[in-house]
Amino acid sequence: GHLMRQLLSIYMHNPEERYLHFLKTFPDLVQRIPQYYIASYVGVKPESLSRIRKRLDYDFKLEKITSFIINSFCKCSVIQNG
User: Fold this and answer.
1) 3-state SS record for 1-70
2) Model confidence, pTM
3) Would you tell me which of 48, 51, 54, 58 could form a disulfide with 44, CB atoms 3.0–4.6 Å apart?
4) What is the full per-residue pLDDT of the chain (82 aa) written as tens digits?
5) 14: left (phi over 0), alpha (psi -120 to 50) or beta
6) In angstroms, rounded to a whole number, what is the distance separating the alpha carbons of residues 62 and 52?
7) How far from each other are the two terminal CA atoms of the chain, in whole angstroms?
């Protein structure tokens, strides 16, 4: 069952994908348990999980900033072309 899926995931998914799956599956646990437990579940060292989390946070912020700039540009274009 669950153990077999976990083992297969180690071979079929990269650490970032496994972490994202953990977040989706157990969103309430992220703030409630130590990061080294999450790292163990994901199959990485705590230092690697920290890098994954920083990269995802950076990517999320970059996506939000890009979206804001694009939306602002589109609104300005509509107003100017009005």
Assistant:
1) CHHHHHHHHHHHCCHHHHHHHHHHHCCCCCCCCCHHHHHHHHCCCHHHHHHHHHHHHHHHHHHHHHHHHH
2) 0.67
3) 48
4) 776 776 666 677 899 999 988 988 898 998 899 999 999 989 999 999 999 999 988 777 777 777 777 777 766 555 555 5
5) beta
6) 15
7) 59
